Amino acid sequence: MKLWRKYILRILPVKRIVDHSRRRQTPERLPQHLVYTILCGAAVVASLWQYAQPQLTFAVLGLIPVLALLAYVPYRVIPSWWRFMIQLAVVAAAAVWLMYRLTHGIPADKALSEVLAITSLIFLMAQNARDYGYLFAISMILLAYGALLPRTVYLWCLGVAFGSMLILLYSNRLQQLSANPRLPNPRRILRRNWHILALHLGLVAGCFALIFPLFPTDPSGSKGIFAVAFNTDKSSMLPANLQQWFQSEKVKQEQGGVRIIRNGTPDTLEAGGTPMKIKGKQPDSSSQDGSGSAPPGRDLVLRVKSPLKLYHLAQLYDEYDGTRWLASAELKRGRINVRSSERSASRMVSSRYTILKWLSPKLYAPYRPVSFERNNDTAPYSLLRTTFYNSELASNNYPNLPFSYLVSSEISTELENPLSERTRRRWRERPARAHYLKLPEKKISERLKKKVEELTRNAKNDYEKALILRDYLRNNFKYQQYSRPVPEGKETVDYFVFELKEGHCEYFAASLAVMARLAGLPSRTAAGFSPGDFNTLQNVFEVYEYHAHAWTQIFVPEYGWLTMDATPPGEIRSQTTPIGIGKLRDPFGDEWRVTPPELTEHTLQTLKDMYLKQVRAEETPSKAAEIIMQVAEVQEEIRKQIKETYRKVAPKSANRASDKKKTRGEAAWEYLKQLGSRSQHYLRIGQEFLRRYYPAVVLAGAALIAAYVLLRKQLRLRRLHRQEEEAKACFEKAAAALKAGEYRESVLFGYQAIRIELTLAGVPRRRNEELLDYARMLADFREGFDRRMTTVVLAFYEAEYGTGEISRRSAVLVQRNIRAMRRGLRVPKQP
């Protein structure tokens, strides 16, 4: 050991770790340390959340506040060499993690973003002031990478980052201009420039509102130039469901395409078209056993380009056994009796469906589909099984994704006079009307029959009956995704209506169908998807897994089969994207929530326009004009009848669910009216109180005014006393600094003291006024003050902004001048 120290250590230079604890008491922490920490956290979430390895993401987010707090711990508690060892450990962990991820087939961009997030931890301890520059640069890179990953959470992180960067811009402006990170900001800088700050905040908020809707929140599906993480991962798009994020990553590249396998179960198809494993086929019955409706998955299932906002039907159920709804043999063999003269082109609507994920062999369509067409011959329609309401794949070989088809649907709304006898007698399905009125008599309770009779007793027509029953369920029962199961031996609808009183969409659909049949209305339940989210940028409906839904179809003689959804409108997920500007460009509105989608004003107007367009193309001008007038009159009559019917029905249901979906303007107007009525009520109460207690009110008001005046005077005196104490302390510090040879501090304290004295004397410096102009202005206040103040200001400039040493002569001159000015302030000014 002695030989090692004597010979080897002299040959090999060794760099020792130096403890700076005695040189600096605390780390070089900037005042904006907390803002930098928030910016770093937002950048890490923006780049790693739901894409990086989940355990690593939570570990980095947990270490950010811990390491950031070390900047507030002095070196006597945790020496600098300890912190240096922590930084080395972080760097080593980042290197090991990078090698581990690359050797396990993780895309390079994903691994590098994770390593960059780990590396940001070493700059949070503020060992040096320049570390904040590195931290800011890393945050910008992570934010830029996060913009490539379509997620909603990124948009909120971007808002936090915008705010943090604006704060740093204001607080670091002088430091950046002077290249001195330790230069303090002027006092009350934010208070003096609040209007500029508010303007900038408004500009940032406006820019963010414009940028927010432009960012995608779901993957586009394109592969790009090279394979990267965000083109091969098929994880959940929203943070509400984190289970898929925590599953093991098994991404396998094959010749036939990219197949994503999680826990051994494929959730998409290979490019070669290998069939996926479906957990059970599409059932021929619906369940109300309490297991809940379809799981709220987040994957995009299909896109629909349609001129109307309608439900997407997959399966109908027409037979009720007291526990569940089933698809009977009559329904499966059912057909529509349609004569060529009855198939009016005015009611035919074409929709383009693009399936992005196979959930079942069903092809979705608005009711009632007439034909399915395909642009290519890869899936000949001889392989399809078609019924009068849907179509499905006949074999187990699923076509490649994305799978597109065009469906033409006949909408139930009649363009003829809805009150005519010809329309009322129409029944086009082969099963008789009585088939859709069958119920298991022994299982339907008497109290349920009495309840239906009580609700529909005063209804004037079938349409009004359907609305009353639908709104009764909407307004008196609670939606619950996972509800309690129906006990053994209980009839489902009776138990739901009188005991359970909450449940998922299948409970509402089944209850409305049964109650409608008790009221003499043909009905059946339907399963599929609600309309989905309307993307105004692409003019398509985007239907996700969480849009899976069940509803009811009720036959009304005036209109045919109508979509009646008893689920509370607020629980039917449908929004207009992008967020913000989407609502302004939405042509459909929310009328479909309170009116059957086939009867909304947009639907009727669209069908009318389509009809008129075809009439103009096929008929002579005179004949076309006659038909146009007839159609317009009938459409207007339908619209008026719908509004009148709903106006009569709505008051019968308390707390209408439709009120929950008022537009913001309508809700604001209702709130203002309520506020006005409340104000008038309180005003009358106040007037009565004044009449009864007038003397006491006057005395109390006078006492409050006197107390306010005295309080303001006391606060003003206290503020003046505090400023006098501050000026006295500054004078004493200036004198002490002069004796100690600290001439720069002496000048600065002296300048601050005389400024406070002048403010107390009633001659404060005006806002943004140059100091030399302020000094010249003092000539009108006291003789000679301008010359003395000019000397003090020049010395202040030299001490505050100069880089050289301050001479003793300058400090002494400042002391003499401020003493003379203090004496002059105590002598009253001669008139």
Automatic annotation (TrEMBL):
Residues 497-568 form the Transglutaminase-like domain. The chain crosses the membrane at residues 33-52, 58-75, 132-147, 153-172, 193-215, 693-711. It comes from the Bacteria. The keyword Transmembrane helix applies. It holds the Pfam family TgpA_N. Keywords: Membrane, Transmembrane, Transmembrane helix. Residues 259-298 are annotated as: Disordered. Residues 283-297 have a biased composition (Low complexity). The keyword Thylakoid does not apply. This is Transglutaminase superfamily protein. It comes from Victivallis vadensis. The lineage of its organism: Bacteria, Pseudomonadati, Lentisphaerota, Lentisphaeria, Victivallales.
